[in-house]
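Q: what does this look like with nicotinamide-adenine-dinucleotide bound?
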Amino acid sequence: MTKKILALPGDGIGKEVMASTLNVLHYLIESHDLDFLITEMNVGGAAYDVEGSPIPNSVLEEAKKSDAVLFGAVGGEKWDNLEWDLRPENALLTLRKELNLFANLRPAFLFNELSNASPIKKEIINNLDILIVRELTGGVYFGEPRGMNNDAEPNYAFNTMIYNEDEIRRIAKVAFEAAQKRNRRLCSVDKANVLEVSKFWRSIVTEMSDDYPDVELSHQLADNTAMQLVLDPNQFDVIVSSNLFGDILSDIAGTLTGSIGMLPSASLDSSFRGMYEPCHGSAPDIAGQDIANPLAMISSLSMALKFSLKEENLSKKLDESIKTYIKNGYRTKDISAGKAHIKTSEVSDIIIDILKNE
Ligand code: NAD
């Protein structure tokens, strides 16, 4: 059956990294006779300029019909003063919510050749390969009641951290299954020493571990995990956590690799349809200069091949080609350490050449 892919380049370098990624995708489609249909549409500021909305209904409808959405990046100074509903960044949150993308997967992978870019010592960081699975649509970011009271003495504000059993089970299932495909170790992160919601989270995850005897489950308190990620990151394989803790921990893990232009992400629904995007933004400071690193977007395509498009072997091939590219010394400006570098528009041809020869 035809697999539908929606490509949303967005703004700034989103357009540049998406162009590279689509070159690679078109090559894979032709060389492997894949039954994929790609539709490209505007989103973010680019959509606002044409249609007066950062996420027009036509885009939302197309996204709902697609197996995978490739999302570049949105935003820029031009649209910074619009009210929230019209701002480019609103497109992202609307898509996550409307597509029910409750599972956010963020790998933090270090190419040892680039370990100099990491703020952590080589002997600690080398071979880093972690996957953070963050719950994305629940927890304290969405819990009700929430609010602010400026009429009380003293004034106060409050939020509710709440998870029901189903929400915990579905994110834990994604994490256990991801661990089964990796090194079969899962660390569930919570604050069970102080929060009821965390105690509940821990009991459900522990109970579920009976169904995954091949996965070694451990639990850690979130403050300790923040520390351990810096002190001894290689102890982790897969980490699963709630929305709030995952938000913080995935940024720490990403920072360990030292290169924002190389971090992909996937956000999935319960049938593994999903949205795939680099962790970086639209980088207005370098947009249009042909110097952005497209590898985060290309790696996001690899995640789409693996999770939503059911082409796991091709995903592995693409990952291998990126490793070879780095090993062979190709560097865009962000990772060139001031030395000679290649252009964004040259990267896809190099990756395609490597794919042809592997
Ligand atoms: P940013 O990620 O766009 O840029 C931060 C720094 O990293 C910049 O110096 C940039 O040049 C560099 N950088 C980022 N990606 C790179 C790449 N692929 N190659 C080389 N260098 C890269 O974050 P920001 O500057 O805080 O935000 C810029 C705009 O992007 C804002 O409008 C913000 O709202 C938006 N934003 C969008 C998303 C998204 O679409 N998912 C995420 C974050 C920020």
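The chain has two domains: 1-102+269-358, 108-262. The chain has a mean pLDDT of 96.
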